[in-house]
Each structure stands twice: as C-alpha cells, then as structure tokens.
Amino acid sequence: MEEPAVEMQGVSHRYGSAPVLREIDLTIEHGEIFRFLGHNGAGKTTAINILTTLLVPSAGNARVCGHDVIADRSKVTERIGYLPSDVRLYDHMTASENLEFFAKLSGVSDPRRAAAETLDYLDSSELGPRRMSTFSTGMRQRIGIAQAIVHQPSVLFLDEPTSGLDPSGVRQLRETIFRLNRELGMTVFMNTHLLSEVARVCTTIGVLNHGELIYKDSMAATNERFPNEASLEDIYERMEGHPS
Amino acid sequence: MSSPRSRVTTLARHEYRAAVRSRALVSLIAILAIVTFVSIYIAAIAYRSALADYEVYVAAAQAGGVQIIAPSPLRLLSLLRGAIEYIEIVGAIIAITLGYLTVSRERANRTLPLLRSRPVTSGELATGSALGALGIISTLVLVTGIVALLCLGLIGNSWATPYEVFKVGLVGIASVLYMFVFYSLGALITARTRVAANGLLIALGIWLLVALILPQIGDTLDADNQIPGGLFSALAVDKAQETEILTHFGTYEFVRTGIEELSFAKHYERFAFAMSDVQDKYQGFTLAQLAREKWHDIVWMFVYAVALGYGLWRGFRRQPALPQGEKS
C-alpha cells in the first residue's frame, strides 16, 4: 500500500513562547489537491515550512511520501516542489537559466531540455531567454511554478500562490494547478487566505484557526454538510465561529 | 538523484557566474586591472631606461678592457611592488564585496528557502559558494600575474626566468589566500548581520584596521623608522649593537611586534615583497632560504585562512533557511 503523500502526527510549533501550530494531525493521499484555509497568522506557512524541511517542528512527526522530514530530509526534498510566497528567483539570470540551475540541483539528467519542456508545458516559452529582472509579478509566478515542477516532483507545495496576481493571473494559476494534478498526477498542497478562488479546483480543504486544525474534509462532503451556505466564504466564517 | 559533488559544482559555477554578472564587482575588478597595469607599465618604462644605461655601461667597460664588470643592480620582480600593494588594498575590497554579494544576493532574491528545499545541504551550499569565489579570485590573480609578466617582457625588455616565474606563482598563491581570507570575512559578517549592508560596512572597517591602521601603528612605533634612512644608521650603530640596544626595550618591542602580527595584510606583504625582491636584504636568496626566513608569515597566513574558512563554513551552516522574522 502506498504511503500517504503528506502525513502530520501531533505536529506542534512555537516561536519562543508563542504557539503557532497545535498538535496537527493530517493525512493527504496522493492525487489530492489540498487547500489550507485560515486567516493571516493561523500557521499555514509554518505548516508548509515544516513539510518542505525548512523548519524543524517543536513536537510531533511529519512525513512526505513516507519519508520523515527530519530524518530523511534528502529523500523528502527529492520528491517535493516548492513555491514560496513572493517568489523572486535570480534577477541576473534568464528564466531558462534559473530553471536549469534548479533542475541540476535536483539531479535532472538533461536540465536544458527539462527547462524548455517545462516552459512549453506552462505556455511560457517566450519567457525563457528573458532576464527575471524584467518580469511582472504574474510572469515571476509562472517561472516560480516552473522551478517547482521542473524536476517533476510527487508533491507540490504552494504558499499563497495567488498573492499579487490579478484576476486573469489567478484564473491561469488555477488552470495550471488543475492540469498538473490531472495530467502529471501531482499532489498539490497549498495555502491561501483567499476563498473564492479555491472552490473549483481543490478536492479537499482544511481550516486552521489559531494553529488548530478545526476542519478537514473533501469539497464534496463540505458542500453536502453546508447545503444552505451560499459560498465558501460563508462556510469558512461559520467554521471559524463554530469549530466542529 | 544528483551527487553531492555535482551539486557543489553546480553551486560553484552559479557563484562564479553571479559574480561575473555583478556590475559593482566588475567595476572594482576593472579598477584593479587598470591601476595594476599602469603601475607596472610606468615601472617597466623606468626599468627599460635603467637597463639601457646598464647595457651602455657594460659595452663601454668591455670596450675599455675592464676585467671586472659590476653586476646589474636592477631587480626585475621588484617592479611588481605596485601590483602587490594594489592587491593588498583593492584586491581585499573586491574580496569583501564578493563575500557580501554571496550572502546578500540570496537574501535579496529570497532564494535560500528554494535552495534548501532541494537536496542541498548547508555544507554543500557553503562549499559551493566558497569554491566559486576561489574560482573568481584565482582567475583575477592569474590574469594579473600573466599581464604583469608580459609587461615586464614587452615593455621592460626583460623576460622573467623560469625561477622568477615560479616565485611570481608563489606570490599569486599567497594573493589568492589573502583575498580568500577577506572573502570569508565579508561573507561571514554579512551572514551574521540582519541588514546585509551593515555586514559590508563592518567587514570594510575590519579591513581598514588590519590592512592600514595596525601596520601603520607598528611602523610608527618602530624606533628605526623615526628618521629617514633609519635611526640606527644615522647614529652609526651596527646590527649587533642595534640588537643589544633593543634587548632593553623587550616589552615595547613585544607589544609593537604583536600589533604587527595581528595584521594579516602585513604577513602577506612581507612574504610577497620577499619573493619579488622588493626588499634588498633578500636579493640572491634561494627559495629554501626565503622559506626559512618567511616561514613565520606563511604559517600565519595559513592560520588566518583556515580559521576564517572554517568560520565561514560554520556560519553558512547556521544560517537560517527562512528569512528572519517570517513566522506566520
């Protein structure tokens, strides 16, 4: 039986004396598009930082594709792609050079070809020879996603991927995520505090409230459970007010 | 999966390319190249003139049947003095800037989390960056050395012998070591400061102290430097008497020497000047004699390089993957 894509058991984290995550238990299977919802400071980014091996949790265990994020760090990093919020990449390099650099670090056998194919897949080939310093926020985001998938990871972590994007950029991103999941089979784990954008693409949602996971279920089950709510905003507000 | 070696190589190439594309760094390197070239060019022209005079003297002496002809007082490698001094000053600033850029680039681009989310360890990151910087520094020193030797031959009309080329090579190695120490200093301090620009300023302050202020204090406190030509010479005191006199100032000399020993730049300068015949007293020394005379400076240079290299490695390992203050 295949190990879950993401597994958190009793994961807690604190910065100094301030708790940010409180005993999170969470399992995400392969092929899901999981979305963490929560207000600013709810602990969403901390959770992603732990799962991408950037932060050691204060307590608990976290595994990605069956590998412990602390003990098997290198195995975890081989299987994941990561797009931080406010992605910048190297301004002095072209988009293609950035992608080739990150592909090489991940051990891709033909980095140049992988970079070209990734740009082509994202309909961004025209950006390849241009320097990053000339890019708009939306272009940077596209190349940011390209660097996250250039080595074809199993699990893709996206931290606030829509921040700074205009409505058309958000729509394009949503379609990209959908394609990555359906066509390449990537499990997607993303954070956002915006709601309306998520409804059509995610398969599962989790809600974090002051570091506690107060809700986790499939979108289908969520819609069944809250049949009278007009939008996800209403459901979210209700959950934050009345944790189940 | 990539091997640690291929990742380190990738990171080193990345560092090299980033440095080459930095306008600030390229400007500094251009300044060093120009001042070095001008310094050697002017010295070589003077040397050519002096060499011509000497050749006229030799021809006249031979024509006059003189049996014993005075050897040439000219020392070809001493023309490199200016180049060594520029490496000591501008080279150190270039190296500090290189170290500062290594750290500040990752911070400004927010790429450290991306690097650390790949199968890259902090040790590989430190090693790759340091090797890339060594590559830049070595290229710079190598090109400077080749241009200097060509200038001596083409402008000074005197080509260096293989032995002299070898000695220039040793000065080159010392120069790489010297600049690497300042690279490590710049990178280490920038990595330890929250605001990268503060790291650059602190590193430049330390450079000012060890490259200019401490040697100057040491020189000023030297009794023999108090009057032009030397105090002891002016008093007609020979070397044995000078040594005898200085034994009465043991503590003073200990403090003065200690201040000079603190300066890494002084050790580099002493070694490089000895190898390039800048100082009269080392003229005609064999390599073994020079090594015996300068082992102290060689050891100190290695101590500084190893200590700062290790400090850099540790500093990089401790550098947080996430930008400081990012907590949500």
How would you summarize this macromolecular structure in one to three sentences?
The complex is a heterodimer of chains A (244) and B (328). With 244 residues, chain A is an alpha/beta fold. Chain A is 35% helix and 25% strand.
Question: Strands, helices and their partners?
Answer:
The complex is a heterodimer of chains A (244) and B (328).
Chain A: E1 6-15, E2 18-28, E3 33-37, H1 44-51, E4 59-64, E5 67-68, H2 73-79, E6 80-83, H3 95-105, H4 111-121, H5 137-149, E7 155-159, H6 167-184, E8 187-192, E9 204-209, E10 212-218, H7 219-225, H8 232-241
Parallel strand pairs in A: 3-8, 3-9, 6-7, 7-8
Antiparallel strand pairs in A: 1-2, 1-4, 4-5, 9-10
Chain B: H1 4-20, H2 23-63, H3 81-109, H4 112-116, H5 122-154, H6 162-192, H7 196-221, H8 231-234, H9 239-246, H10 250-261, H11 264-275, H12 287-318
Helix pairs in contact in B: 1-5, 2-3, 2-5, 3-5, 3-6, 3-7, 3-11, 5-6, 5-12, 6-7, 6-11, 6-12, 7-10, 11-12
Please supply descriptive tags for the structure shown above.
A: 244 residues; alpha/beta; six-stranded mixed β-sheet; four-stranded antiparallel β-sheet; 8 helices; globular; B: 328 residues; mainly alpha
